[in-house]
Design brief:
Layout: H1 21-38, H2 40-43, E1 49-51, H3 55-74, E2 80-81, E3 90-91, H4 99-104, H5 106-112, H6 114-140, H7 145-156, H8 159-164, H9 176-186, H10 193-231, H11 236-260, H12 262-270, H13 300-306, H14 323-338, H15 342-362, E4 366-369, E5 372-377, H16 380-383, H17 401-418, H18 424-438, E6 448-450, H19 456-459, E7 472-475, H20 485-495, E8 509-511, E9 518-520, H21 526-537, H22 545-558, E10 560-566, H23 578-589, E11 593-595, E12 598-602
Parallel strand pairs: 7-10
Antiparallel strand pairs: 1-6, 2-3, 4-5, 8-9, 10-12, 11-12
């Protein structure tokens, strides 16, 4: 396998002067400043504000951090829990459990709380992704500080990364990718095969814990890159020479990762509450062809009114590079190709194949152009039915294209600095091209909103007087992705070591979807539907004696002891009418008790 992407000399031949410490400092400060800038809306009040377009995912990750720390300190299983979705529980191995983050940051979670810890991790993810790519390009591939800085900062704050900064702690952990690339290339050294294989195996296990889907995409991209590079006539002999050692190192990696991930993988594919695929429509969650030339909403161009609505939701603007950047990328490829030796052309060819392959796959099973479906079958229509692939959202495959663009831009800058065009107009044209392509993509802060506070009934610990230890307490409406309060309350109680209460339903992926596929939350029951209807419409549903009987069966199924309605309910997608919910619950359960700042209904236990 290649000692590096063959676009630069090996690190050993790079003079130390190239590793300019001043450049390091500038890039570090720039990465941190951009990360804080993007998340600045949350820094105004970490415990009181939420990401406007995805407060539900934010609440989920806050809960995962609190639960992971609780599981660590109480000796509980971090990958399966009965604290939510009673009585069935939730298989966190098939969810985004971010176990490594939960364990590593557990002391911080206990110290400052889950929301603030979530914000710290999100900010560090963005900065670390840019810095990890900068380190790979400068230290491993030997590029100068400016070139590596351009590449690293672009990748770390590319449109897809900023889009997923809307609460996705898994996808913003892009710092894992350059580390995986580094350790994969290290396997070429036969003298360190065992050590390098073990290190990569441990890194694979960590990546699986934090972002399993991202690990899968990275493995696919590296597989395509290595295969294309190895089959190129200019590099075929080199690939054949290092292949035995490389495969040996991969075998060590597989054994190491297999041992570390044996239980998580069993839970994932054979454990309780498992499912295959997801409940998401691959056609809806695919990339629009026109999205590659569009500008993202949270960018300078988007603020100027040039954004579009081509993504399925604001967290999935996975391409959105803009036409100027696409033109600059092609020009950079041509520049590098014209001056490249055969070995470097093999690498360029491999990078190009990776970008085109993943771009086409991101279009999903059916092509869409500006929202209109085109009757043209695409490769994902066949691949999307394969195991593991059927759990991936095709639109996210576009995230692989951004690092390829960043690498090409970095090498183009390095080439232009080493061999600048002789004519001044050409130099000005390149400068203008970079400015026109990158300035419109300058990220803007995430949109945030004030979030309804956690009731004093929870923060004061009064809830412990209304539910037995480990008993079932449910907020109204019942906890779902659109009503995340139950997991927010539970996260607060766990992080502040008040004790445990369990809740019905919840925001998670579990079985119950069509054809054995997954879905968000548990199968719906009448009590949950009635509260949802009242909260959304502001009207009390028609309730008969039969309705009351079914609701009582729901209460017995969930073993509910106490129902709680806060004065202010957080609705992740729409406003909630608390008064309609109170009137509906009163019809079902009788008059409530006012306790501090909530309404409480006690359920007699038979």
């Amino acid at each position: 396998m290649p000692t590096s992407p063959s676009l630069a000399p090996s690190p050993a031949s790079v003079p130390r002067a190239v590793r300019d410490r001043r450049a390091d400092l500038v890039v570090v400060l720039a990465a941190l400043a951009l990360a804080v800038w993007v998340t600045s809306g949350l820094w105004r009040d970490p415990n009181g504000r939420a990401i406007t377009v995805n407060s539900s995912d934010q609440a989920l990750f806050e809960w995962l951090l609190a639960f992971g720390g609780h599981a660590l300190t109480h000796g509980e299983n971090p990958l399966f829990t009965y604290l939510i979705n009673v009585p069935d529980g939730v298989n966190l191995a098939v969810n985004t459990s971010i176990t490594v983050y939960a364990v590593v940051f557990a002391p911080l979670t206990y110290l400052i709380g889950p929301p603030a810890t979530f914000l710290v991790i999100l900010t560090l993810n963005l900065a670390a992704t840019a810095l990890a790519w900068y380190w790979l390009l400068s230290r491993q591939f030997g590029l100068g500080g400016l070139a590596a800085g351009v590449g690293g900062l672009f990748i770390g704050f590319s449109p897809g990364m900023v889009s997923h900064a809307n609460a996705h702690l898994n996808w913003t952990a892009g710092w894992l990718v350059p580390l995986l690339i580094w350790r994969v290339f290290a396997l070429r050294r036969p003298e360190h095969r065992l050590r390098d294989g073990v290190i990569l195996g441990v890194l694979v296990a960590v990546a699986f814990s934090i972002a399993a889907e991202g690990l899968f995409f990275t493995a696919l991209a590296l597989g395509v890159f290595v295969a294309v590079w190895a089959l190129h006539p200019a590099t075929r002999d080199e690939a054949r020479a290092v292949l035995p050692g490389f495969l040996g190192g991969l075998a060590v990696t597989a054994v190491t990762a297999g041992v570390l991930l044996a239980y998580p993988l069993w839970l994932h594919f054979a454990g309780p509450q498992r499912f295959h695929g997801t409940g998401f429509d691959a056609v809806i969650h695919s990339e629009d062809v026109a999205a590659y030339g569009a500008f993202p909403s949270r960018s300078l161009a988007g603020e100027a009114g040039l954004g579009t609505q081509l993504a399925p939701n604001p967290t999935e603007e996975n391409s959105f590079f803009g036409y100027p950047l696409l033109v600059l990328t092609v020009a950079s490829f041509v520049l590098l190709w014209r001056r490249a030796a055969p070995g470097r052309r093999a690498t360029l060819w491999a990078l190009g194949v990776v970008a085109v392959t993943f771009a086409v796959l991101s279009f999903g099973p059916v092509a869409k152009v500006e929202g209109r479906r085109v009757d043209l079958p695409l490769p994902f229509d066949l691949l999307g039915h394969l195991p593991v692939v059927n759990a991936a959202l095709p639109a996210r495959l576009a995230l692989v294209v951004a690092p390829v663009i960043g690498v090409l831009l970095a090498y183009a800058v390095d080439q232009l600095r080493a061999h600048p065009p002789r004519r001044r107009p050409a130099r000005l044209a390149w400068g203008a091209g970079f400015a026109a392509a990158l300035l419109p993509l300058l990220p803007m802060p995430l949109l945030t909103v004030e979030r309804e506070p956690i009731p004093k009934f929870i923060t004061s610990g009064t809830w412990t007087e209304y539910v037995s230890p480990g008993g079932v307490l449910t907020p109204l409406p019942l906890t779902l992705d659109v009503y995340p309060d139950g997991q927010r309350w539970q996260a607060y109680a766990l992080a502040h070591q008040q004790g445990e209460f369990t809740i019905p339903a919840g925001f998670f992926l579990g079985p119950g979807g069509p054809d054995g596929r997954g879905q968000i939350g548990p199968p719906r029951r009448l009590l949950s539907d009635l509260m949802d209807q009242a909260g959304r419409t502001g009207l009390v549903p028609i309730i008969t004696a039969g309705t009351v009987a079914v609701v009582r069966e729901d209460v017995r199924h969930w073993r509910i002891e106490t129902l709680v309605l806060a004065d202010e309910v957080h609705g992740a997608k729409w406003p909630v009418d608390e008064d309609a919910i109170r009137r509906t619950a009163t019809v079902l359960f009788g008059e409530p008790q006012r306790v501090e700042d909530v309404w409480v209904w006690r359920v007699p236990q038979s």
